[in-house]
């Protein structure tokens, strides 16, 4: 606690000197960076970096590192794939994976790679469509124009993907055009014990000693993609003080939210998720204790929950810091006063904050219903997700593209199909455990007297219901899913599958609360956030960056340590440190490959390092490149102080944590004997 | 959320008309109550009520209801005993318990009953001892005088217990003298399914349909106690609108805390407990899913955790309500201004608030260390608790009484012996699960680099350590514990028992952080809270009640409904309602005894009811009596709106929830055929 509180105080005092910002690829503060670091970053550099960077659609970043479509990302970004390719007999998570030849590379059932090939400003189109509208009509127009614009852009949605991206909470709209790749194969992954050495106790901490690396390859028409743009590997890696650039896809930040919105998080939503995930963590931990196979199949879920939980606790701590919170309030008041002092601005934008505050009150009232009837709808299970998507898709596909729920518009169909027809294994025991948990929470949160709860649990306990759904459904068979998907509404209505019927029984209530939220709350929030964004441009200028939106950004910084509890933290660790931290007991147990090959290693090789780049969840797998645009590292974490980054960046202690390029090469070469890969990279 | 937020707004506007207050038995607002309800409550009435009321030392309330020492309390207050008396073959929790004859009544291994026989004001003694002192000397003097006063009072601590009670956070000190009874036997308990019908989903809700009743009997010299003071059973029970009085032992309230202290709760401590208990809840839930026996042995723990968790979430919600929180701040500012406006008062008391604020800052800094090194020290397990107590007692008993840690002073020895030499079963599997959980949290919270963490986990994972401690210890044998207890420091030092050695290895760090807390933080907080209490008496008068301290209080109110989401809630339910709510699936499954005997019941008999009495955790098991001092009910819960009662009482919706006297009799008679008991009560 102490550190976080102390450091956040410094926030607003120093931000003008900070390496702050998740900048747009087409709006980078080159002159500011040149002044600070003496490095010229021109648009050609940026365009090359853009095309060399990729997004893992399921929630991570990565980069091309060879002309044959080889992509570097984190182990934890490919973790789900590695688990899906494993069986009880062959556990690639525990043992690692290495394709000795091209033919040994195996397809990941659910990975999708996006490469950003074009950015178009569509602010005017969007503004024109919504001009003069508020409430539901505003929201409908926004959705329809988004769907239309995306469809017109991606004429072939199998290979292209187009997203209308809302920047500055609506201050700008850009159309992002991506190449879409769904044939992605696993090339290399170290053992989980080495990738996530230190486990949850060390997560979000520094110093670190992790090789959180996986290599995957994009295929096109059955052959490795010829990737013209890729980052070359640096000959020496990054040294302390050297400028570093991180391209990647930060997921979400909330630095531009109003105080009313931040208060809702602090007072309601964060606590609710902390309680939920903590309990689920307990369930999954004890589930894993049942045996080795249960541990294997729950590993990815448990890792994800623990990682999210730690991040969310960090957010809560940041918002619970009184001094920090009040500094945000002062900033907001400054902006409001500027707007109020100009009658024209005031007339146009003055009411935006109070409108959002009113909408937030309404949001608090429906929060529980919205969460449990709609937002947690797939209950973190494969089967419920499939059932819901089949039921919803059938109904949505009957509608014109512009009127569909946004996840069923034409441009979203390839991802939908990928997940519905995935060959990934489904584990009954885990599905039952997850459903039992979520059903119980469903009842707890909506209360026993809610009509839907009464209906669902009138004849079965949560656990009995979970068991019968999982045991009796046919949705585990891909051909059954395919038939239902192709069969449309008629097939769904005629289906006797208990899971389809269950999903149908929830759908009306689920849609109703979502509609209420979108029409009455989200529409107000979006409209007024757009107003605030415009007001901010007018009052404070446009020399800034938008909140993160899981779209490509670039941040600048340098290899830099920091102080914690008065102690100086060195920015670079070495391979030797990993062996010093090894106790032989999970999660501080290096795998056999490391222990056996220790003598071959140059133990003074840099292993992990910290930089002052401004990153957040979603940046996992981002390349760290030097001024020459060469790979010097691989972002895999932030330190504990970076967790407040959701709401503000503190340059004195907020650090990105990366695997060093030299450490990766040394391990690939000497520990894993991955000559083929090393040669390809070099 | 909605309800809680709305209702708390009303708080300060109406409190002067409220049935608010957990009043002292020797300072009851009789004239106010007479004015409001036309009921004369004189000191004789109060003295009889005091002697008829009892405390369950482990954390509940109860009352004598016959001249043969029969005590009425909640099922959930005797739950642990019922579980301890059960075996895998004979599960009294699931099946219920009834002693058909006196000889069938079975001793509870860990129950202690306290009857408050005398109250003496020792404010002057305490004030004299601490006069002019601050910091550690103040705190030492307070502790020494407490230990001395208690020892002098309880010359025979086996049968008498004396506690110095701090009232108004130090505004007054009273010496409470109790008769102490440790021979307490189980007489009757219904099935858990009936006692806790509706389970966690219905907990803290109303309407309710629970027979949360157990009957126990105090024995003296091997025979039933002749209890001269007891509550008679009402002939008709309470009707809507009728005045009701609740005597009992509310555990803790925080209505007099300063804003700095409340902020620490809102920002830090409550969330920390919510996360911990949520995760433990998940662990225990999944542990219970392993099988029937695991479910049985974890039941009491899980129930306790779920109950606490719901209560703590309610507290967090109350403190997160901005309007409520700011109203508390206004109240504090009014008091501070009054003190500041009087130079003499200001000199004496003016700095108290800022002194506490400074201490709170320091408290936040050591919160994690204090929690994990000392406060969670027994990790909710039997074995670690025993090991710790043996290790500590041996060291403390070497010191003079006045210098001991407070839980090892002479007056506390009987409880200590009771728990150390308890015959209650210890379940290895549950102990291992709990220790694994807490060891993991211990490492997570103190971090992997903490020297003690490094030392403890250098050679074992949390789970391996838990297993080896539990499997290898001899502390499961009562004679081993007794020998170590009697053997003192020498025996402890020579012990090879791994759990004793483990407890020893933690003791130095554990004592150090506690010492830091007591000497540098608690001493400041206590001293200044005492000042604020005196300032409050001067500025606002003494016509008030102190925060709850798990000592006997009386509250007044009436049988009264309330409004929730605009809907009127009737204050009384009937037996018919239980059958209507029955689905046959846990936790909405009435036991066979109810279903089989349904036809014998008068279904319109009142079952549960709500009253406006001001209660809180610790009041569980409290009798509800009418103006004539007759039993009309048994408090077992509060509604969800009562959870904010920790910080303030809202008369419009804060309700105590009780089992109706008529419902209890009807069930005892017609369902359980408990003629012997019914005759004794009647």
Task: Describe the 3D structure.
2 copies of one chain form a homodimer. Chain A is α+β, with helices and mostly antiparallel strands and 682 residues long. Chain A has a domain of 292 residues: Thrombin, subunit H (Beta Barrel), CATH 2.40.10. In chain A, the strands form 3 sheets. In chain A, strands 2, 3, 4, 5, 6, 7, 8, 9, 10, 11 and 12 form an 11-stranded antiparallel beta sheet that branches. The longest helix of chain A is centred in the C-terminal third of the chain and has 43 residues. The radius of gyration of chain A is 25 Å and the shape is globular. Chains A and B meet through helix 10, helix 11, helix 12, helix 15 and helix 18 of A and helix 10, helix 11, helix 12, helix 15 and helix 18 of B.
Shape of chain A from CA axes? globular
CATH class of the domain at 23-112 and 188-254 and 547-681 in chain A: Mainly Beta
The amount of helix of chain A comes to 40-55%
Say how many strands of chain A there are.
Answer: 22
H/I helix tally of chain A = 26
Q: What is the mean predicted local confidence, pLDDT of chain A?
A: 94
Largest two-chain interface = A-B, 57 and 57 residues
Percent of residues in β-strands of chain A: 15-25%
End-to-end CA span of chain A: 43 Å
> How large is the radius of gyration of chain A?
25 Å
Largest sheet of chain A: 11 strands, antiparallel
Provide a concise account of the structure shown.
2 copies of one chain form a homodimer. With 682 residues, chain A is an alpha+beta fold.
């Amino acid at each position: 606690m102490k550190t976080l509180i102390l450091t956040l105080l410094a926030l607003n005092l120093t931000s003008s000197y900070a390496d702050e910002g998740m900048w747009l690829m087409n709006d980078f503060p080159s002159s500011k960076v040149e002044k600070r670091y003496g490095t010229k970053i021109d648009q050609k550099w940026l365009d090359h970096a853009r095309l060399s960077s990729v997004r893992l659609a399921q929630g991570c970043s990565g980069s091309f590192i060879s002309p044959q479509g080889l992509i570097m990302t984190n182990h934890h970004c490919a973790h789900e794939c590695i688990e899906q390719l494993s069986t009880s007999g062959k556990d690639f998570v525990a043992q690692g994976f290495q394709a000795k030849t091209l033919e040994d590379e195996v397809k990941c059932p659910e990975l999708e790679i996006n490469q950003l090939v074009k950015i178009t400003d569509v602010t005017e189109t969007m503004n024109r469509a919504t001009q003069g509208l508020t409430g539901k009509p505003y929201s409908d127009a926004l959705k329809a124009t988004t769907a239309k614009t995306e469809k017109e852009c991606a004429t072939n949605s199998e290979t292209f993907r187009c997203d209308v991206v809302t920047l500055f909470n609506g201050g700008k709209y850009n159309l992002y055009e991506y190449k879409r790749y769904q044939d992605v194969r696993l090339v290399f992954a170290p053992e989980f014990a080495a990738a996530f050495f230190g486990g949850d106790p060390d997560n979000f901490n520094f110093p670190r000693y992790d090789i959180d690396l996986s290599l995957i390859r994009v295929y096109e028409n059955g052959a490795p993609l010829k990737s013209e743009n890729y980052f070359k590997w640096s000959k020496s890696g990054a040294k302390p003080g050297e400028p570093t650039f991180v391209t990647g896809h930060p997921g979400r930040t909330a630095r531009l939210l109003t105080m009313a919105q931040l208060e809702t998080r602090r007072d309601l939503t964060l606590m609710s998720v902390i309680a939920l995930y903590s309990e689920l963590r307990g369930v999954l931990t004890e589930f894993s204790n049942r045996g080795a196979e249960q541990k294997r199949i729950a590993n990815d879920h448990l890792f994800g929950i623990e990682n999210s939980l730690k991040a969310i606790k960090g957010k809560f701590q940041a918002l619970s810091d009184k001094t920090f919170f009040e500094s945000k309030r002062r900033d907001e008041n400054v902006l409001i006063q500027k707007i109020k002092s100009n009658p024209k601005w005031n007339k146009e934008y003055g009411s935006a904050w109070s409108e959002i505050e009113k909408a937030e009150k309404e949001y608090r009232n429906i929060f529980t219903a919205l969460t449990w009837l709609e937002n947690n709808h797939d209950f973190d299970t494969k089967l419920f997700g499939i059932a819901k998507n089949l039921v919803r898709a059938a109904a949505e596909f009957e509608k014109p593209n512009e009127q569909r729920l946004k996840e069923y518009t034409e441009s979203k169909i390839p991802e939908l199909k990928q997940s519905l027809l995935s060959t990934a294994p489904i584990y009954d025991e885990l599905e039952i455990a997850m459903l039992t948990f979520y059903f119980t929470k469903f009842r707890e949160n909506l209360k026993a007297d809610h009509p839907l709860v009464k209906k669902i649990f009138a004849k079965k306990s949560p656990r009995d219901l979970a068991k019968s759904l999982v045991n009796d459904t046919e949705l585990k068979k891909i051909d059954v899913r395919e038939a239902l998907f192709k069969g449309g509404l008629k097939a769904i209505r005629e289906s006797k599958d208990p899971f389809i019927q269950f999903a149908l029984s929830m759908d009306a209530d689920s849609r109703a609360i979502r509609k209420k939220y979108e029409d009455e709350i989200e529409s107000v929030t979006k409209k007024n956030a757009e107003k605030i964004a415009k007001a901010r441009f007018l009052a404070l200028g446009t020399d800034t960056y938008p909140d993160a939106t899981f779209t490509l950004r670039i941040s600048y910084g340098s290899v830099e340590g920091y102080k914690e509890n008065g102690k100086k933290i060195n920015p670079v660790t070495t391979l030797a440190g990993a062996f010093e931290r090894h106790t032989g007991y999970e999660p501080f147990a290096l795998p056999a490959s490391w222990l056996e090959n220790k003598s071959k290693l140059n133990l003074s090789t840099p292993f992990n390092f910290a930089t002052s780049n401004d990153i957040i969840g979603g940046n996992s797998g981002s390349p760290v490149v030097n001024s020459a645009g060469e790979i010097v590292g691989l972002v895999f974490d932030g330190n504990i102080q970076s967790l407040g980054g959701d709401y503000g960046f503190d340059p004195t202690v907020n650090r990105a944590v990366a695997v060093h390029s030299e450490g990766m090469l040394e391990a690939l070469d000497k520990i894993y004997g991955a000559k083929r890969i090393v040669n390809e990279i070099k």
